[in-house]
Amino acid sequence: MVIGDREALAWVLSTRQTAFPAARAGQVSRLAVGDELLVYTTRGCFRNPTRDRGRVVARATVAAPIARDEEPVRFGGREYPLRCPLHVTELAPFGRGVVLADHVEALHAFPDPRSWSVRLRRPLVPLDAHDRDLLAGLLRPELAPLDDALPEYLRRGVPVQQQSRRAPAP
User: Fold this and answer.
1) Structure confidence at residue 122 (pLDDT)
2) Regarding beta strands 55-62 and 36-41, do their DSSP bridges make them parallel or antiparallel, or are they unpaired?
3) CA 93 to CA 100: how far, in whole Å?
4) Is 124 left (phi over 0), alpha (psi -120 to 50) or beta?
5) Which residues have a Cβ under 8 Å from the Cβ of 55 and sit 6 or more positions away?
6) I need a surface site. Which of 17, 28, 85, 164 has the fewest CB within 10 A?
7) What Gene3D superfamilies does its record include (predicted)?
8) Is residue 139 pLDDT above 50, yes or no?
9) CA 21: distance to chain centroid?
């Protein structure tokens, strides 16, 4: 599951659900309860692609079928009316996780390593068993309990102008 926006990532992790645009209904309708998703944050997710790396940061499991929501969630002026709950229990601490670019040549999902990032311009990138096992194995030692790693993702998921409007801590 590809996430390219910090606010969307904070929403996914805090609400333990994901949402997709209506235009991707055909692709996401194939998701079934129990399907495993590896959560990938793009280089631009935290709005600094020269500093940040695209990383696999969590594992999630689809907890219920995709449903169309009456009130779509909105990020960056786009609507995401297709939702499903996720089971997420572990997350790599912020700045950790599996840097996908370092493993592209070993992954079947990217047959042309020179243009691999083009395949990440959709919300779901199918992985075969080899790719899933490789990435999950590399991710495993990076993971921490969700409640330990989540606060930093939530802090970074809030736009700067909203952070400055918060009341100071007592």
Assistant:
1) 87
2) antiparallel
3) 16
4) beta
5) 40, 41, 92, 96, 97, 98, 99, 100
6) 164
7) ph1033 like domains (3.10.590.10)
8) yes
9) 15
Q: How many CB atoms lie within 10 A of CB 68?
A: 10
pTM for the full predicted model = 0.90
Distances (CA, A) of 21 to 29, 81, 89, 123, 161: 12, 6, 25, 9, 26
The whole-number average pLDDT for the span 110-121 is: 89
- 137, pLDDT greater than 70: yes
Q: Phi, psi (5° rounding) for residue 113?
A: -55, -20
Beta strands at 67-75 and 90-91: parallel, antiparallel or unpaired: unpaired
- Cβ neighbourhood burial of 56 (10 Å; 0-12, 13-18, 19+): buried
What is the amino acid identity at position 45?
A: C
Task: Show the domains of the chain with their CATH numbers.
Answer: 2-165 (3.10.590.10)
The whole-angstrom distance between residue 65's C-alpha and the CA centroid of its chain comes to 18
Q: Give the tens place of pLDDT for each residue, 44-66.
A: 999 988 889 999 999 999 999 99
Angle of CA points 139, 144, 150, to nearest 5°: 110
**22 SS3 class:** helix
116 DSSP 8-state letter: G
